[in-house]
């Protein structure tokens, strides 16, 4: 795959609950574009739903950071454990990009 195929980050969690009782994930720049919504249960602890929304909103920035870390650690001699961790990181990047 070539080029970024998702909405550019950074993203944030909207301050307002939606009519569907969810937390909307939107671009941070104030655009009205909707990325995703995390359901907010009425009768249970909402802590997990809010944490899920924050994690989703951080995804674009985490992807960029992980790609940069892989570039930094790719050069030179690295331990076997570091190679395993780099392979895991590259697999997650590929999954996020739809390459696996």
Structural account:
This protein is of the alpha+beta class and 100 residues long. It has one domain (11-96). The chain contains 2 helices and 3 strands. A hairpin with an 8-residue loop joins strand 2 and strand 3 (36-39). Helix 1 (47-74) packs across helix 2 (80-96). The termini are close together.
Total strands? 3
State which percent range the strand residues make up: 15-25%
Q: Low-confidence segments, ≥5 residues, pLDDT <50?
A: none
Fraction in helix: 40-55%
Number of helices: 2
User: Main β-sheet, in a few words?
Assistant: 3 strands, antiparallel
The shape is: elongated
Structural class: alpha+beta
What is the ordering of alpha helices and beta strands?
EEEHH
Strand order of the largest sheet: 1-2-3
Distance between the termini: 10 Å
Topology readout:
Layout: E1 11-17, E2 22-27, E3 36-39, H1 47-74, H2 80-96
Antiparallel strand pairs: 1-2, 2-3
Keywords:
about 45% helix, about 15% strand, about 100 residues, single chain, alpha+beta
């Amino acid at each position: 795959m070539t080029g970024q195929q998702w909405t550019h980050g950074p993203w944030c969690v909207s301050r307002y609950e939606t009519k569907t009782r969810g937390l909307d994930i939107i671009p941070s720049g104030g655009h009205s574009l909707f990325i995703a919504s995390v359901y907010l249960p009425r009768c249970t602890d909402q802590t997990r739903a809010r944490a899920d929304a924050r994690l989703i909103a951080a995804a674009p920035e985490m992807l960029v950071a992980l790609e940069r870390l892989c570039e930094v650690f790719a050069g030179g001699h690295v331990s076997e454990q570091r190679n395993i961790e780099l392979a895991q990181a590259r697999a997650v990047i590929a999954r996020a990009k739809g390459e696996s």
